[in-house]
Design goal:
Blueprint lengths: L6 H7 L19 E5 L5 E4 L3 E2 L7 E2 L8 E6 L6 E6 L5 E6 L10 E4 L4 E5 L1
Antiparallel strand pairs: 1-2, 1-9, 3-4, 4-8, 5-6, 6-7, 7-8
Length: 121
């Protein structure tokens, strides 16, 4: 059953919006656990893959599995980017960039806090 979304969550997950940098409630979360889709609860990222990229959004160097997210070319706003979408419900999560930790995957999943839920281990 879908979760009840706030106006902000709807704007991000359904209308492909973004939250202002450095404002998300999960940006500085350092607890151990799993980040999931705020809309459907699909597990997306582990706290073990979270790092501080300095970008202003929660950043991860990998998703929890191949079934977690879908990547789609995004050429909106005059930019060429890769959109990150929840593979279960299709909700917009954020974007993927190739400037992540080189000692890991080199990827930076730049994700909106409002698109995420969090469950402690």
């Amino acid at each position: 059953m879908p979760n009840k979304l706030t106006k902000e969550q709807k704007r991000i997950l359904l209308d492909k919006g973004t939250e202002p940098p450095f404002t998300g409630k999960l940006l500085h979360n350092k607890e151990k656990g799993t980040y999931s889709c705020a809309q459907c609860g699909n597990p997306l990222f582990s706290s073990d893959a979270k790092y501080d990229s300095g970008s202003g959004w929660p950043s991860f160097w990998e998703s929890v599995s191949d079934n977690a997210v879908e990547l789609k070319e995004d050429n909106t706003h005059g930019m060429k980017r890769i959109e990150v979408i929840c593979k279960k419900c299709g909700g917009h999560l954020g974007h993927l960039f190739p400037d992540g930790p080189k000692d890991k995957t080199g990827k930076r999943f730049c994700i909106n806090s409002a698109a995420l839920g969090f469950k402690k281990n």
